Amino acid sequence: MDATTAPHRIPPEMPQYGEANHIFEMMQNMLEQLLIYRPEEPIPFMIDHLQQNNDNVPKIVVLGPPAAGKTTIAIWLCKHLNSNLLTTENLIAKEFSSLAAGARGHYQKAKSVPGTLLVRLIQERLREDDCVKRGWILDGIPETREQALTIQTLGIIPRHIIVLSAPDTVLIERNLGKRIDPQTGEIYHTTFDWPPESEIQNRLVVPTGILELETAQKLLEYHRNIVRILPLYPKILKVISADQPCVDVFYQALTYVQTNHRSNAPFTPRVLLCGPVGSGKSLQAALLAQKYRLVNVCCGQLLKEAVADKSAYGKVIQPFFEKEMAVPDNIVMKVLCQRLNQPDCIQKGWVLHGFPRDLDQARLLDRADHRPNRVFFLNVPLDSIIERVTLRRTDPVTGERYNARLLAGA
Ligand SMILES: Nc1nc2c(ncn2[C@H]2C[C@H](O)[C@@H](COP(=O)(O)OP(=O)(O)OP(=O)(O)O)O2)c(=O)[nH]1
Ligand SMILES: Nc1ncnc2c1ncn2[C@@H]1O[C@H](COP(=O)(O)OP(=O)(O)O)[C@@H](O)[C@H]1O
Predict the structure, then answer these.
(1) Is the pTM of this model over 0.80?
(2) Cα dihedral angle (286, 287, 288, 294), rounded to 10 degrees?
(3) ipTM > 0.85?
(4) Residue 172 CA: which ligand is closest?
(5) In ligand 2, which atom is closest to the CA atom of 166?
(6) Per-10-residue mean pLDDT for the chain, 410 residues long?
(7) CB 306 within 8 A of CB 313
(8) What separation in Å is there between the alpha carbon of 144 and the centre of ligand 2?
(9) Residue 122's CB: how many other CB atoms inside 10 A?
């Protein structure tokens, strides 16, 4: 086989470095921005993008019907994540902005802002330093599919979308109790979230647009639009029931926005199966190897093969086998690393079982840079273990293991 067709040996450090430093995601984000903004000077644009280093800042959209708790949850998320809340109200309230002044005019007349104007206001706001550095949370925007498409075209791409949902009847009833603190903008509720301080209680105001008919009309508008928006964000949205205490909604939302989505980065599975004897490691490893085309690495089998092949390591191991003593960890590691460093393990990935058996061995594996990226512990009750091990039969020719009960039934 000439050098051009030989499988290129990819040192294990390469894919691990790429995974550990999110290189693939970084390059993917930069490529997205380049294609969206198509700068005259790509190199300075890329340098600036990389220096911003804001791929992981919050970029969240909170959607939901009126009174679902969008603003409440968005405010709490902003405080917890130290990010910036963007609402229609605070976007049009921006001073020294002709766009905002025009939008205020529309809002005063029609209680709404034209979609294109609103999206340009968002784009203007997201370019400001605080949004670049600390991210943003859009409350109730986009309101329509057209707005969502325009936002996407401008390169405004959220990382997480939360969609709150609750029965209309609950929302209509709930909205009647909404109260707002005009000084802080904080939202309260006469039943579910009444402030303890009498000073705040006394200054709360009843917001407009919360009467039953008004909420019902907004609900109709929302249901008409949301079904056309959601298909635009298939992989980054999570629906959370808002018909539960605010705090529960918040913690579900926070957990979601703090998870990283699976990226498109090439992923090499390095699976570790742990569990007591007879827990099914070998069986599950064989099934995983077959299903995902992984290399099945059974540590015990590797040592036996080294002895059978009378390899250099095999000759060192044999005396320990003959005296039925544990093979020293450093020797096991040499045999294991020799196998894990082979091209098939690096390119296809592996499923390892029978090692590590203790913390020292686990540390050795970690130091050898063969860190698993999926670890499963097979937890089986003791009586099942005893039954399986006593009923286990091994084919001396193939080494295959069987369960005598299953064989009897076969
Ligand atoms: N009923 C049942 N039996 C299983 C299951 N997985 C494995 N077995 C049977 C097959 C074998 O006869 C016995 C032990 O299975 P394995 O040899 O795969 O267990 P393991 O590799 O963990 O044992 P080891 O630590 O290598 O001695 O239990 C399972 O999920 N359900
Ligand atoms: N999960 C919840 N349970 C009970 N009341 C809630 C919940 N979420 C929000 N509220 C209350 O409902 C009213 C509307 O909340 P708000 O955050 O303004 O909803 P939205 O922004 O979706 O219109 C407020 O009085 C708020 O305190």
Answers:
(1) no
(2) 50
(3) no
(4) 2
(5) 1
(6) 55 74 85 85 91 87 96 96 94 87 86 86 90 94 93 89 97 95 92 94 94 95 96 93 96 94 78 93 95 96 94 95 94 95 91 95 90 93 90 79 70
(7) yes
(8) 21
(9) 23
